[in-house]
Amino acid sequence: MFRKATIAALALAVSGIAVTAQANDQLAATLGVAPGQYSAAELTALKNARDAGDQDRAAFILSGSAPVAGVNTDEQLAASVGVAPGQYSAAELVALRGAQEDRDALRADYIRSGTAQVTRDAVTSPAEADSQLAQLLNVDGSQYTNAELAAAILDAQSH
Predict the structure, then answer these.
(1) pLDDT higher than threshold 80 for residue 9
(2) Which among 9, 25, 93, 113 is most buried, taking Cβ atoms within 10 Å?
């Protein structure tokens, strides 16, 4: 019984792979590209770009310059905003891209200057060494968390 179930599961898995490959080949043919030349993600991105009328994005995908995935890698994102890879965190790159898309040169310059620290939720905040709370207390902000600095401010004001 176990052997029959294993054979049936294997047959389903193989047929699933064949169906997926056939679907990718059909999508490639619909888009006018050679089957097997692009991944499913690239084909989907190409279709989306063409549907949206984004000829630049479609040309980029067809050029094969970079693999298309669900999310840009840090290197791709850095290249898209015109900075060297490894120089900024992913959150800083996202914030920089947002500033560029909003045509906010001041915010983009602030992020590029290195005086901004962008948290993982892509909200810019002052670097800890420049923290206003730390300056009010005359301490090195990099030695304390914001919560500790805020507590110290409240404590100092209550005395």
Answers:
(1) no
(2) 93
